[in-house]
Amino acid sequence: MTAAFQMPGPRDSLTDVAGLLVGHHHELDDATMGSGSATGCTVVRALGGATAAVDVRGGGPGTRETDLLDPSHSVQHVNAILLTAGSAYGLAAADGVMRWLEEHGQGIPMGSPDHVVPIVPAAVIFDLPVGDWAARPTAEFGYLAAAAAATEFATGSVGAGVGARAGVLKGGVGTASTVIEGGPADGVTVAALMVANPVGAVFDPRTGLLWGVGTLGPASFGMRTPDVNQLWAALALEPKGTALNTTIGVVATDAALSSASCKRIAVAGHDGLARAIRPAHSPLDGDTIFAVSTGTRPVTAESMVPAAFSAELPVLAAVTEAAAIVVEKAIVRALLDATSVAGIPTYRQIFTSAFGGSGA
Questions:
Q1: Strands 288-297 and 20-28
Q2: Which of 71, 169, 176, 345 is the right S-S partner for 259, CB 3.0 to 4.6 Å?
Q3: ω into 279 cis (within 30 of 0)
Q4: At residue 129, what are phi and psi to the nearest 5 degrees?
């Protein structure tokens, strides 16, 4: 049964899920392609920890602590998730996130009151050619991003998305949320934060509209079909020209769900990714989505649920449907909020007529 969705949460953001905060840190200094700094990271902090899982679909992932999130393994909670630029080098930023969390007593308690081990899974995008090859996030980046985490945060060419490139256009960080209306999941919030850096196309070559506007329609984003001359100009842009890419992100809910259910949410999130990016999950991408449950809304069983099934199932069905929608919308927001870096054009710059600008 298809769930009904109300308007987005108050911020239309990942932080509409109670208990989550987001922080960025990046360096951007007049980057031109191949020189200057254009790199950063984004941290999602879970106050008090959150149940989590992950699903990796791309052929070239760069990750840390993802094996730990298997539902059959011992540790079921995370303290933060790191989304970072810099390819495998950028994973060093997780050390800084762990340091900040340890200083604030957040992690798995290990006997002594000041002995904790923070759990910080991470995933990377490949953006090294956008700025200086040697510019990549360090542990200090992760520390500062964790310290900056708040309910309000910027989107577009910031944090892990500052050097992101989405096909021929500028990528970035985007977010979205929705609240489920009616049924067993009534009032549950589902939200996503995505870093869009794919090799695949993000717009339809027949119309110029972003692929991801399909579910909600262009009017929902204040858009219309762009002028054909601007479409031809976009199709003539130089291809990305790199074999390494990747779209990564976090999808979250306040429904109290198990790690196994979070795994299903992460899987469903990839449906939204595949609607917004074509092709998705290629051998040239490391597409990775984390899923978290903060558990602030209890889940109760319905009498119609067979004894052999999990009591979470009716809620999970609605949450997974919503997960695909918010991931798709978050990717669109990443593209619409992006600003040009290193000469990489944005969607808004190329398709001005999609927003009422001249098509001449």
A1: unpaired
A2: 71
A3: yes
A4: -70, -15
The set of residues, in sequence order, having a beta carbon less than 8 Å from that of 277 and lying 6+ positions away, is 166, 196, 198, 200, 201, 202, 211, 212, 247, 331
Contact 355, 211 (CB under 8 A): no
Q: Which residues on adjacent β-strands are paired with residue 177?
A: 191
Residues 6 or more apart from 156 whose CB is under 8 A from it? Answer: 172, 173, 174, 334, 337, 338, 339
Domain ranges of the chain: 4-355
Strands 122-124 and 63-64, by their bridges, are antiparallel
Alpha helices in the chain (DSSP H): 93-103, 139-148, 228-235, 259-276, 313-337, 347-350
Alpha helices in 185-292 (DSSP H): 228-235, 259-276
What tens-digit pLDDT sequence spans the chain (360 residues)?
A: 455 556 899 999 999 999 999 999 999 986 666 677 889 999 999 999 999 999 999 888 999 999 999 999 988 899 999 999 999 999 999 999 999 999 999 999 998 878 999 999 999 999 988 888 899 999 999 999 999 999 999 999 999 999 999 999 999 999 999 999 988 899 999 999 999 999 999 999 999 999 999 888 899 899 999 999 999 999 988 777 666 689 999 999 999 999 999 999 999 999 999 999 999 998 888 899 999 999 999 887 665 565 556 778 889 999 999 999 999 999 999 999 999 998 999 999 999 999 986 543
Which amino acid is residue 185, in one-letter code?
A
Check the CA dihedral 260-245-348-160 and report its sign.
positive
d(CA 189, CA 13): 10
- Only one residue has tokens 């904790």, namely 116
Q: Which residues pair with 332 in a beta bridge?
A: none
Superfamily of domain 4-355: L-amino peptidase D-ALA esterase/amidase (3.60.70.12)
**Strand blocks (E) in 99-141:** 108-110, 112-117, 122-124
Distance, in Å, from the CA atom of 201 to the CA atom of 211, rounded to the nearest integer, reads 8
Q: How does strand 108-110 pair with strand 4-5?
A: unpaired
